Amino acid sequence: MNTFGHFLRVTTWGESHGRAVGCVIDGFPAGLEVDEEFIQREMERRRPGKKYTTQRKEVDRVEILSGVFEGLTTATPISMVVWNVDADSSAYESLKTVFRPGHADYTYWAKFGVRDWRGGGRASARETAARVAAGAMAKLLLRRYDVKVMGYAKEIAGVSCEVDDAEKAFERAERSPLRMPDERAEKEAEQRLKEAMSEGDSVGGVVEVVAKNVPAGLGEPVFGKLDAYLAYAVMGIPAVKGVEIGAGFEAARKRGSENNDPIVLKDGRIRFATNNAGGILGGISNGEDIVLRAAIKPTPSISKKQRTVDYEKMEEAEISVKGRHDPCIVPRAVPVVEAMVALVLADCMLMQGLIPRSLL
Amino acid sequence: MNTFGHFLRVTTWGESHGRAVGCVIDGFPAGLEVDEEFIQREMERRRPGKKYTTQRKEVDRVEILSGVFEGLTTATPISMVVWNVDADSSAYESLKTVFRPGHADYTYWAKFGVRDWRGGGRASARETAARVAAGAMAKLLLRRYDVKVMGYAKEIAGVSCEVDDAEKAFERAERSPLRMPDERAEKEAEQRLKEAMSEGDSVGGVVEVVAKNVPAGLGEPVFGKLDAYLAYAVMGIPAVKGVEIGAGFEAARKRGSENNDPIVLKDGRIRFATNNAGGILGGISNGEDIVLRAAIKPTPSISKKQRTVDYEKMEEAEISVKGRHDPCIVPRAVPVVEAMVALVLADCMLMQGLIPRSLL
Amino acid sequence: MNTFGHFLRVTTWGESHGRAVGCVIDGFPAGLEVDEEFIQREMERRRPGKKYTTQRKEVDRVEILSGVFEGLTTATPISMVVWNVDADSSAYESLKTVFRPGHADYTYWAKFGVRDWRGGGRASARETAARVAAGAMAKLLLRRYDVKVMGYAKEIAGVSCEVDDAEKAFERAERSPLRMPDERAEKEAEQRLKEAMSEGDSVGGVVEVVAKNVPAGLGEPVFGKLDAYLAYAVMGIPAVKGVEIGAGFEAARKRGSENNDPIVLKDGRIRFATNNAGGILGGISNGEDIVLRAAIKPTPSISKKQRTVDYEKMEEAEISVKGRHDPCIVPRAVPVVEAMVALVLADCMLMQGLIPRSLL
Amino acid sequence: MNTFGHFLRVTTWGESHGRAVGCVIDGFPAGLEVDEEFIQREMERRRPGKKYTTQRKEVDRVEILSGVFEGLTTATPISMVVWNVDADSSAYESLKTVFRPGHADYTYWAKFGVRDWRGGGRASARETAARVAAGAMAKLLLRRYDVKVMGYAKEIAGVSCEVDDAEKAFERAERSPLRMPDERAEKEAEQRLKEAMSEGDSVGGVVEVVAKNVPAGLGEPVFGKLDAYLAYAVMGIPAVKGVEIGAGFEAARKRGSENNDPIVLKDGRIRFATNNAGGILGGISNGEDIVLRAAIKPTPSISKKQRTVDYEKMEEAEISVKGRHDPCIVPRAVPVVEAMVALVLADCMLMQGLIPRSLL
Asked: Is C355 strand, coil or helix?
C-alpha cells in the first residue's frame, strides 16, 4: 500500500530520519526528455527551511538511479532518491514512550507493535518529498499535453482568498510566503499565524488545486471515478481531513436548477456555462477545469502543553513537542496536493489511451 | 473499474433499464450464516417507491446464485442478482439525443462514443442497489465483530440536524421520511423540499455515517490510508461532491491545540478525550468512532427548464426532465454510504487479519 | 482471486451443482457487435454430453444480462449467466466425507473448513464454462484485429501428433472426437483411451495452442511478461500441471546456436527464421506465432478403487468415484486453454494501446 | 508491471549498466530481525565472477535504505540497493544497431521505440540480483515458520541428475560449480559444457526447486491458484521457457490410477502416499513438498556467428556476441528460482493469515 496508481504507479519508501526517502515510478512512457531542473524547482517549492516552515535544512536534491538513458525515459522503472541530510533525532529522544497527540504515533504502534519514533518515521510529512519528485515527472508528461496543475492556499487560519482566475492566483501565490493568491487575506492570515506561533500553537487551512486543459473522458466508473480517485489521492496526504470537488459541500445547499451546469455550444464545441461540477460528471472529466479543495488540519506538533499517555509506564502524561516544526503546513502542502492531482491525471490519460506507451 | 476492494472485492454490473443489476462478492470468508432477511431489510431501506422518492416500483428482491451452501458462505464468489421489474424507458425516448445537465450523459458519450440512454444506463443510481446488497453482506460480517455502521441525513436543503448520540440519531432517522434524526430540522427541511418540488426543482444535503467499535489498526499507509480508502469509496457514490472525516473542513479553521484530541487512559486503555480526528490518525483507525460526512448534490433530474445541447443536430436546446425522479436523493443515499463504509471496514479487518479467512 | 486480468478483467462465479455459473467482464471496449451465435458455438465446443465425455446434459446457453445495448458493447460490465440444468448430486452423497484422490476436496476443506461436496463445487471444471464464455468475447475482439487463437490435442495417452500447419491442424481437430489433428495418432490414442476406460481408468495429454497475427510489443516486463502471464492463465486451468512456450523443455537440451532464432528480413520487415522462442523474447511478443503447450493430467475421477481417508471417522477408506466423468478431459480442455490465451492477448493489446477503449 | 506480489509486493528497478539495481519490498511484516549476513550469502550464490560464469566482477553488496529500525523490520517499505561497480559497456558499442538473437533487443525496441543497449539494459539478468535480495528477506520470514526453499540444477546440457532427497541434493549442489546434486551427471554435463564453450556456444538445463514444510491451504482459486502463481513467478525469470509442478508433463502420460496420490493417515494426520501433485491440488497446497521445475534455455549470448538485422541500415548482418557471458546460466538461475518461489510462498502465507502483519 505504499504504491499509488494503476497504469502509472509510484512506490514511495523512506523514513523521516532514515538514510533517505525515495520512489520508484513504474509505467512511465518511453521517450520523454527529463528536465531535471524542473524536478528540482518542484522540490524547492516543498522544501523546508523557509519562512513559516520548519528550519530543518534539506537540499532535497533528487538523484535518478534508473529508467533514464541518454536523457530520455525508457519505460523502465525510474528510481529516485532524496538523501536525508539534516535529520536530528535528539529532540525525539524524550518522546520515545509518549504518543504525540494528533500524530500517528499511537496508531502505528497499535497496528504494528513497533514504530520508528524518530521524527514520525514513515508517517512524517518528509515522505511527501518523494511524492513531489514523482509528481514532477507526471507534470512533465502532462505539460506535453498542455495540461497544467496549479495550486495555492485558498484559506489559512480561517481567512479565505478571493480567486477569479486560477492561473493568476497561482502566479501570485508563488511569490507569497503563505502561498496565498490574495494580498489582503494573506496579511490577515499572517497576523493570525503569528498569534498562534506566539502561543506555541499552529493553524490549518484549505488548499485549492485547479487543473486546466484536462481532456474529457478521464475516469473509470463506477468505482474508479475520477473524483473518487482524486479523493483517494488527496485524502491520503498527511493532515488532509476533507476533500471536495467543484462546489463541493456548497452544492449540498443548492437547488438542482442552480447547481446543474447548463450545457452550451462555444465555438461549435460542447461546453458548460458554469462549473459547479468541478470538471467531473458521473465520475468522468467533462473538459472543464478540474477544481478540488483539501482541508488541511493545523500542524499537530505544538509546543503548547497537551495531555497524552506514556505507554511504557502506562500512565497519563503531559507533552510539549519541541523540535523544528511548521506552524502551518498549508503552503508546503500545496505542491504535494498538486503532485497527487498530476499523478492521477497522468494515470487516467494513460488508461484512456490519450498518452501512448511511447512518445517516440 | 467496476470492482471495489482489495481483499474483499465487489464487482457490480447492470444498467437502470437493462434486465437486472447485480454483484459478485469475492474474498468473503467461509462459514458465515447468511441472514437473507437482513439483506432484504437493507434493500428496503434504499428501495424507491416511498414518500419523496421516485415512484418507480421495484421489489428489489436479492437472489443469491452462488457462494452459499447449506446456509453458510463457502469463501467462493457470492453472485447476487436484483431483477429490474418496473423499468420504463418511454420517458427517455425524447431525451435520446440531448444531454441532461448535471448527469453523466455527456461524459459517457465523450468517453465511449456510445451510451445506454435509458434512465442513465450504467450511471443511474439504480446501480447502487447492488452496492447495498454487497454492503449488507459486509454488515453481517461486521456484526459478528460488534462493529456497527449507522447513517442518517445530517443536513437537507441547508437545514442541519443536531446530533448528540449516533445510535439514537440512527434509530430516530429510520422512522423519518427524510431520514433525519432531529424532528425540528426535519420539519423545516420538509418545507423547503416541498417548495422546491412545487417549482419542479430539487435539493441536496449531507449524509453522516458513524461506525462504532472499530478496532484500532485498520488502514494501510501511506497511500491506502483508511481515510483515503473511505474517501475513495464514498466519493464514488453518484451525486457525492465532498467527503470529510471527523472535524473535516472545520479542522482547517481550528488551532492545533483545539484540534488535537488529547490522549487519555479510560479503564486502563488508551483512548482519546475528543474525536476531531473522526477515529483516524495517520490513516490508521485509533479505536474511536469513525465519523464521515458526504456532501450530496441536489438531484440533477428536474422538470424545470434547463439549457443543453442536442448532439445529433449539434445545436443548443431546452430540456425538461420528466420521468419518476427523487426530488432529494439524500434519504436513499444514506444506506448506500453505509454500505460503502461497511465494505471498507470489512476489507480492512480482513487485511489486518482481524477477520480470518474462515469463521469455522 | 476469482478475477482474471488487468485491463480486461473477468470475474467468474458459480458451483458445479449450484444454480448457475457465470462471469462478469469488465474493461471490454465499447462498440463491438456481439455475435451471440459465435459465443454459443464456443460453448458447444466445451459442452459435455458427447463421445468420450461426461454424459451430463447441459445446453450451456449463455444469457447476457448487461453491458450490451442495441447489439453493441457499451464498455460497461458484461454479465453472462449459464444456468445449471442437469446437475445431479446423488452420486456425491456417498462421497460427502471422503476426499477424492487427485481432486481439490482435501485442500478446500483444509483451507476453508467447509466445502460444497456436490460435484466438486467451485473446483469443478464446470467453472470453465464461464471462462469459455468470456474467452469467446475476447476472441470476437481479437478477430477484429485478425488475431486467431487455435488449439488442439497435441498428445493423448502418450501418443503425439505431428503438426505442420496450425491452421490445418485446428480444422482437422475440430472434426475429431479427441480433437487431435493427426488421424494416425488419433486412432492409437483412441485405442489406449478405450483400454483405460475398460479398466475404470483415465488418461491425460497435452494441449497446444497457437496464436497467429499477434502484433509485436505485447507483454509487460519484468514480472508481467507475456509468457509469465500466459503461464499464470493456463496453469490456473483445472488439471494443468505444466506449461511451456515455443521449444519449452526441449530448449533446455539445445545449444544456444540451435535455439536462438536467426533474425532476418522478409518483405522488408524484421522477422525470425525459426520460432523456438514461441513468439516471445524477453517477455514481449516478437510478431511470430505464439506457441504454448499445457500438460493435462489424467482425469482424477475414476471408478477404479483408490485409497483415501474418511474425515468424519478419521480413518482410511477405499473409494470408487462413480458419476458421469470424462475419461479424458483433453478434448474439452482445448477451448478452455484457447479462452485463457485469448483473454491474455486481448488484455495485453488493450494495455499496449493496440485496441482502443472504444471501437466507434 | 515491475511489481510482483499481492500482499507482499516487490518492485525492482535498475539496468545492467546503470548506476544500480534495487528493490522496494512492501507489505513485509513488522518485527523480523534482519540477518544481513544471510542476505549477503544469498547474493553470493547468484554473484557472477566464478567458474563457468561471466567474469564481470560485482561484489553485490546490498544496502538497506529504509524499513528497518534498530535491527527490526517496521512494516514500512524496505528499500534495497545494489550498486553496479563493474559495468563495461564498451563491448556493446558495436552492437548498438543490431539485435542480438535470443535476446529482448528487438522486442524492447518494437514495444518502446527506444532501448538501453548497454548489456541488455533492463532485460539483463542483472535485474535478478534485486529479486535475490528480496527473496532473501522472504526466506528469512519463511525460516521462522520452518519453511525451506531449496534448489539445484536437475539437468544441464541434456544430462539429468538422480535425486532422492531434496535436502541432501541441495547441500551437495551447493558445493558443485554447476550446482548439480549428482556427481556422475555433473562430470558429464561439465564435459558437454566445455565442448560448447570451445565452440563459442552455450547450453541450457532444468532447475528444480523443492519447498518443505509448506502448510496446507495456500493458494487462491480459481485464478490465483498456487501453481498458477508459481508459474507466473518462475516463467517471468529471464531464460525460462517452461514450468511444471510435480509430475508435470510426465503426468500427461500417466493413467489416473497412477497419477492420483493416495490419501492416507500418517501419525493421525492426513497425508499423501506419493507426490505426483507436487504438493498442490486444485490450486491449493496440500501439505506435501512443493516441487517445481523450470526449463532454462541456453544463454543467447554466444560468440558463434549468427544471422541478424542491423536496424539502422535495415539490412541483414552477422553478429558475434563478445563480452563476458555465462556459457550456462543454470547454476546462477537456481537462487533466482528459489527467490521467486520464496516470495510466492511468503505472500500466500500472509494472505492466508498464517503469517501475521506483526511478529511482535
From this structure: coil
State the ipTM, two decimals: 0.97
Q: Which of D3, D106, D304 sits opposite C281 (nearest CB)?
A: D106
Peptide bond into D222 cis (omega under 30): yes
Provide the domain limits for residue D76. Answer: 3-351
Tell me if B14 is assigned to some domain.
Answer: yes
Chain A contact probe: residue of D21, D109, D112, D358 with most A CBs at under 10 A? D112
Question: Alpha-carbon distance C130 to B296, whole Å?
Answer: 38
Assigned domain for A17 exists: yes
Conformation bin of residue D83: beta by default, left when phi > 0, alpha when psi is -120 to 50:
beta
Number of H helices, E strands in chain D: 9, 19
Q: Are D15 and A76 in contact (CB under 8 A)?
A: yes
Residues of chain C short of pLDDT 70, as ranges, are: 49
Q: Which of C17, C116, C127, C355 to mutate to test the interface with B (most CBs of B within 10 A)?
A: C116
Q: Which residues pair with D241 in a beta bridge?
A: none
From C7, C221, C352, residue closest to A357, measured CB to CB: C352
Residue B195 CB coordination number (10 Å): 13
- Contact list in C for residue A76 (CB cut-off 8 A) is 221
Q: Is C357 on the interface with A (CB under 8 A)?
A: yes
Select from C279, C291, C284, C278 the least CA-distant residue to C219.
Answer: C284
| Alpha carbon distances (Å) from A347 to A68, A139, A149, A283, A291 | 19, 11, 14, 15, 18
Tens digits of per-residue pLDDT, D177-223?
999 999 999 999 999 999 999 999 999 999 999 999 999 999 999 99
Residue C149 lies in a domain: yes
> How far is Cα B222 from Cα A187, in angstroms, rounded to an integer?
34
In a domain, D278, yes or no: yes
Residue D109 is part of a domain; what is its CATH number? 3.60.150.10
| CA dihedral of C229, C232, C238, C239, whole degrees rounded to 10 | 110
- Tell me the H-state helices in chain D: 36-46, 90-93, 105-112, 128-143, 166-174, 183-198, 226-235, 256-259, 330-351
**Number of domains present in the structure of chain D:** 1
* Tens place of pLDDT per residue across chain B (360 aa): 999 999 999 999 999 999 999 999 999 999 999 999 999 999 999 987 677 777 778 789 999 999 999 999 999 999 999 999 887 888 788 888 899 999 999 999 999 998 888 888 999 999 999 999 999 999 999 999 999 999 999 999 999 999 999 999 999 999 999 999 999 999 999 999 999 999 999 999 999 999 999 999 999 999 999 999 999 999 999 999 999 999 999 999 999 999 999 999 999 999 999 999 999 999 999 999 999 999 999 999 999 999 999 999 999 999 998 877 899 999 999 999 999 999 999 999 999 999 999 999
Residues A226-263: tens digit of each pLDDT: 999 999 999 999 999 999 999 999 999 999 999 999 99
Q: Exposed/middle/buried for D8, CB within 10 Å: 0-12, 13-18, 19+?
A: buried
The model's pTM: 0.97
CA atoms within 13 A on the CB side of D6: 23
CA D201, D204, D205 angle in degrees (round to 5)? 155
Instruction: Give CA–CA dist A233/B222, Å, rounded.
Output: 10
φ, ψ of residue D238 to 5 degrees: the values are: -50, 140
How many Å apart are CA D21 and CA C307, to the nearest integer? 51
Contact indicator for D2, A25 with CB cutoff of 8 Å: no
